[in-house]
Amino acid sequence: MAEQLTVRAYAKGVDQAPRKVALVAGLVRNRTVADALVILEHVPKRAALPVKKAIESAKANAVNTHGLDGKTLVISTLSVTVGTRLKRFKPASRGRALPFQKKTSNILVEVTGLEKPKKPAQAKPAAVVTEEKK
User: Fold this and answer.
1) pLDDT in tens, 51-72
2) pTM of the entire predicted model
3) CATH 1.20.1440.20 for the 4-114 domain, yes or no
C-alpha cells in the first residue's frame, strides 16, 4: 500500500511585507497543488509569484526527490512568517534622514501525497554470447 509522506520547501527573504504575502497564501491554503497553481496564475497581486514558486518547489521536491505522485499532492501547510528587516533611511527636507524598515517574508510550504506505485522488477534476459568468425 502506498504511504503518505510530507515534503517541505522554504522561500526565505521574499522582499514583501508578510501581511501582503499572507493574503495571497490564504487563497490557496489546504487545496490541491494543481488547483493552487491555477488560482495563483490568475491572482493580480505581486505576492502571487513567490507563493507560486514556493509551491512549485515543494512539488518538484516531492516528485523528483521523494518519488511521490504529482496528482495526489495537497498543500497541508502554507505559512508566512516575518523575515529579517533591513534598516534604511529616506532623505527628507532640510538635510534630515528619516528611518524606515524594509520588511521581508519567509514562506513555508508542506505538501502531502502518496508514493508512486513501484513497478514489479522484471527478470533480465540472459546475455547471448556469440563467437566471432575468424
Assistant:
1) 999 999 999 999 999 999 999 9
2) 0.83
3) no
